[in-house]
Amino acid sequence: MLMKKIDLSRSRLIQLLLIVVLCSPGSALAKNPSLSRTSPEDTVRQFYAWFLKAGFPLPKRSNLPTFRKYISQRFLKKAMDPEVDSVLFIDAQDDDSTWANNFTVAPATVQGQTATTEVTLTGKTVHYKLVVTLRRENGVWKIDGVKGKDWKDVTSG
Fold first, then answer.
1. Residues 122, 145 within the same domain
2. How many structural domains are present in the chain?
3. Nearest alpha-carbon partner for 89 in 28, 48, 37
């Protein structure tokens, strides 16, 4: 009987320690509990909903917190490089403003700490697909790369 009580106490102690660690002020879960449960698809969907509706903003001081929420540190640093002459988040120089209301995100393929999904942008003038790679950064899915494919100008016959 005494042994069971000790095991139960040890089990509760472990549970308590896990709660304390996960909810400590420095943990990503404590900063935003909903982020730890966000899927790769949700991260991509939320980012592109904001990014496309905001008119393809560049990462600058006023919107860096939003970029940091969705984009890995490595990819954000690359996007901010003055030598880059395209918009890395769509892997292109040109865009279609109607993409904001016409995009879909495919189910992601997850392999450990990385995931890949496809975003289909269906605009009035251009149809385009993006292969989006994500990785876990501090326990949160973040976009870590974008590669465009199948650019189709639908206005030319």
1. yes
2. 2
3. 48
SS (H, E, C) 14-34: HHHHHHHHHCCCCCHHHHCHH
Number of C-alpha atoms within 13 angstroms, CB side, residue 43?
30
**Are 48 and 26 in the same domain?**
no
Taking alpha carbons only, the member of 95, 125, 112, 103 closest to residue 44 is 103
pLDDT at site 96: 94
What number of other Cβ atoms are within 10 A of residue 39's Cβ?
16
DSSP summary character for residue 135: E
153: left (phi over 0), alpha (psi -120 to 50) or beta: beta
pTM above 0.85, yes or no: no
Range of the domain at 5: 1-31
Give the integer Cα–Cα distance in Å for 90 and 121: 10
Contacts for 27 with CB less than 8 Å, ≥ 6 apart: 21, 139
Tokens in use for 67?
């970029």
Q: Tell me the percentage of the chain whose pLDDT exceeds 90.
A: 67
H/E stretch holding 114 reads: strand 114-122
Distance in angstroms (rounded) separating the CA atoms of residues 6 and 62: 54
Q: How confident is the model at residue 85 (pLDDT cuts 50, 70, 90)?
A: confident
Say which amino acid occupies 81: D
